[in-house]
Specification:
Layout: H1 3-14, H2 18-30, H3 37-49, H4 53-65, H5 74-85, H6 92-104, H7 112-123, H8 130-143, H9 146-163
Pfam families: Sel1
InterPro entries: Sel1-like, Sel1_AlgK, TPR-like_helical_dom_sf
Protein name: Sel1 repeat family protein
């Protein structure tokens, strides 16, 4: 095990800060050529269970892509993206991932209208993901028929005004 990874794991073990634990778990998942899935999951799962949308997002990515040696499970991945991107988490990166999952049928049925809805919500927010969300949204828009575009637009507005409205 390399020194920096070992040091980071020790920091995560001794840290009381959720942010430090979160970053340690993400770093373990991103570590090339190592199998840090068990340690990463042990760090991220409690945070995800408490509703931390970034932990949910990264567990979703880990299960989808096999990060850190995690066994791939697209259904579990989709569930994490739903938790992170939906009403509880409202994480725009997770909303982009939900759009991608619906677009490709990863862990759920393929549904271009749902893909557009979640991607459009993500594209509304500013962040490192925004340009990807805009490209994906525009690609999806070109795949939809005029009737589907109209329905998707209505559903996006409903999501914004009712489902995702802050209490």
């Amino acid at each position: 095990m390399s020194g920096w990874s070992s040091d980071f794991e020790k920091q995560a073990d001794s840290s009381e800060s959720g942010a430090s634990v979160l970053e340690a778990g993400i770093t373990l998942l991103k570590s090339p050529g190592r199998s840090g899935s068990a340690k990463a999951a042990s760090l991220l799962q409690p945070l995800a269970d408490e509703g931390n949308s970034r932990a949910q997002l990264w567990l979703g990515r880990a299960y989808r892509d096999g990060l850190g040696g995690m066994e791939k499970d697209t259904r579990k991945s989709f569930q994490y993206f739903q938790e992170a991107g939906g009403r509880e988490g409202m994480n725009p990166e997770a909303q982009l991932e939900l759009g991608r999952a619906y677009m490709k049928g990863e862990g759920t049925d393929r549904n271009l209208i749902a893909a557009y809805m979640w991607t459009a919500l993500s594209a509304d927010k500013q962040g490192s993901w925004t340009s990807d969300a805009i490209v994906q949204r525009d690609d999806l828009l070109n795949r939809l028929t005029p009737a589907q575009r109209e329905k998707a637009g209505e559903l996006v507005e409903q999501l914004r005004s009712i489902y995702l409205k802050q209490p």
